[in-house]
Specification:
By secondary structure, this protein is α/β, with parallel strands linked by helices. The chain has one domain: Rossmann fold (3-Layer(aba) Sandwich), CATH 3.40.50. Helix content is 32%, strand content 19%. It contains 15 helices and 16 strands. Helix 10 packs parallel to helix 12. The termini are far apart. The relative contact order is 0.10. This is Carboxylic ester hydrolase. It holds the Pfam family COesterase. It comes from Imperialibacter roseus.
Amino acid sequence: MKKVFYILCSLLFGSSMLIAKQVVQIKSGKVAGIATPDGQVVSYKGIPFAAPPVGDLRWKAPQPVKPWEGVKECTAFGPSPMQGKPAPFSMWSQEFLIPEEPISENCLYLNVWTGAKSPKEKRSVLVWIYGGGFQSGGSGVPIYDGEAMARKGIVFVSINYRVGVFGFLAHPELTKESPNSASGNYGLMDQVAALKWVKENIAAFGGDPDNVTIAGQSAGSMSVNCMVATPLAKGLFNKAIAESGASFGRNQQALAPAEEAGVAFAKSLGATGLADLRKLSPQELMKGQLGIRGPIIDGFVLPQHIADIFAEGKENPVDLLTGWNQDEGLLFGPVKNATDFETQINQQYGSNAGKVLTYYPASDDAEAAQSQLDLSRDMIFGLQNYAWANVQAKQGRTSVYVYRFTRKVPGTGEYAKYGAFHTGEVPYAYDNLEFVDRPWEAVDRKLEATMSTYWANFVKTGNPNATGLPEWPIYKPDSQQVMLLGTKAEAKPIADGEALDTMTAILSANK
């Protein structure tokens, strides 16, 4: 890796400090990053991978970066994509959220952490895709920091992509102006553009463009699912880590109804068409954002339902590490008492209600409350990743590893009650507990070391196992051995496989 070294004097916490900067030549120009005090890792933050998607480029596929002269300072995260102001919510404290500033429509930046000293090293590469329900999120979140994984011999990359109305608005005029006769999946196209950037540039940072793993959590995991499914990402990666999210149901929106929603969105803002929408400020567009959903079956980025793509073996072949958390049920409304929950199940599932209540019982209010959380967990996350693991394992073309994160994340006050909550596994998996202010115990530090080593091994080889770690068996649909990641790591048959199979059968019969 060709680097230029120079020293910049800076004031930090009131004292003078020497910061070593390193310059790398990429296709669009030179970028300068900052080395850690021990010189073992260099971070390059805020590297543009596409032109700013503003003005006439709003709601268009990402366009190439304009090359620059001189050295671009890449020492701070670029702006997070347009969204509402972040605020701690429910189980998520500030460490799980983007910085308050900057937030901008000009958001197509990525970050690289590397410990490589030469491009000849060809270190394995991990590309992180954030969650946020396709409505929020950004790569500048503290728990997404890449230094610790870089110290494990990986080149860590985190990327931004457009969210909300900026990333997923479909409209007939947008479809008409598109050379691909499609609209709405701009956020996914941003992800593809970032992966192409990695393919073209990561060798300059000591990374191997032919050994790339994509990883994500929640909507980021759904994005990973989309990248594995889309023909646009063919050849850009060979492994995938999917944490709590996939799209094997039939709830993905087709292009026509998404366009109708886009027309209604425009009318809600008093816009008669696309030209008016492009004249509105980002803040004005945010006022009408409700109703804009995530990925669309647009016939281009996603040519058909993801379940059908996998069923027909058309997906990009990858080794897969996937799973979900024990306590990540999300309730969008008040908890129902036992009587009301049973009534809801009977109304929703009819003749199958008895089967559902067998696995999600409601003998009293407390049991009903837990069943509501468990059913929510399985419907939103568990069934999706379970389906992905099963379909890919049955194909037998690649290796599949499945986990269940069960550690009740320590917390004080309000945070103490959430258990193994949604996103709770992320700082463990990427060796970033230090960024989260919780009363960590020795068992947490051990789990962090175990999980992050599993993840790093998988990124390097497609196999999480190594000497000194509990053996993580390849997932097989008949034995259903999964790795439980809790107070200790141990492989066991999935405990609720019958419940998941039952719900899968009920949903399949009703589709």
